[in-house]
C-alpha cells in the first residue's frame, strides 16, 4: 500500500504533503532532518495531520500532485473534515 499524507508542524504553523509506502519511517525522516535540502528541515515537530491509503504508487503520486496544486490551507482542513473529498480523489485517480 501507498499513502498520501499531510503533516503539520505546530512550531512553524506549516503543512507538507507527500506520499510513501512506510508512513512511520517517513515521519521519522522528516523529524530527523535526514534530507538536507528538504522543506521539512525547518522543523522537527512534524505530526500526521491527514493520511489517505491508496491502491498503488501511481495513484498516490497523482493525488499528492493534486493536493499540492491546491496550495490552500482551507483545502487541507476540508479534506480532513469531509471524507467525501478523499473518496472523490480515489475515484478520479483510479
**What fraction strand?**
15-25%
Assign the CATH topology: GIY-YIG endonuclease
How would the global form be characterised? globular
Strand order of the largest sheet: 2-1-3
CATH architecture descriptor text: 3-Layer(aba) Sandwich
Output the structural class. Answer: alpha+beta
pLDDT average, as an integer? 95
Treating each run of at least 4 consecutive H or I residues as one helix, how many helices?
A: 4
Distance between the termini: 14 Å
N-to-C series of helices and strands: EEHEHHH
Q: Return Rg in Å.
A: 13 Å
Low-confidence stretches are none
| Total strands | 3
Give the helix proportion (percent range): 40-55%
- Provide the CATH top-level class: Alpha Beta
Sheet of most strands: 3 strands, antiparallel
Query: What is the domain tally?
Result: 1
Provide a descriptive summary of the structure in words.
This protein is of the alpha+beta class and 94 residues long. It has one domain (2-92): 3-Layer(aba) Sandwich (GIY-YIG endonuclease), CATH 3.40.1440. Helices cover 45% and strands 24% of the residues. The protein has helices at residues 23-31, 57-70, 73-81, 83-92; strands at residues 2-9, 14-20, 47-54. It has a three-stranded antiparallel sheet, with helices on both faces. It is globular and about 35 Å long.
How would you describe this structure in keywords?
94 residues; alpha+beta; GIY-YIG endonuclease; three-stranded antiparallel beta sheet; 4 helices; 24% strand
Amino acid at each position: 500500500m501507498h499513502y498520501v499524507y499531510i503533516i503539520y508542524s505546530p512550531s512553524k504553523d506549516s503543512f507538507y504533503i507527500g506520499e510513501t509506502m512506510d508512513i512511520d519511517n517517513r515521519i521519522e525522516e522528516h523529524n530527523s532532518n535526514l534530507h538536507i535540502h528538504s522543506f521539512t528541515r525547518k522543523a522537527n515537530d512534524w505530526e500526521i495531520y491527514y493520511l489517505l491509503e491508496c491502491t498503488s504508487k501511481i495513484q498516490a503520486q497523482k493525488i499528492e500532485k493534486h493536493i499540492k496544486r491546491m496550495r490552500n490551507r482551507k483545502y487541507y482542513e476540508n479534506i480532513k473534515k469531509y471524507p467525501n473529498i478523499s473518496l472523490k480523489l480515489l475515484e478520479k485517480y483510479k
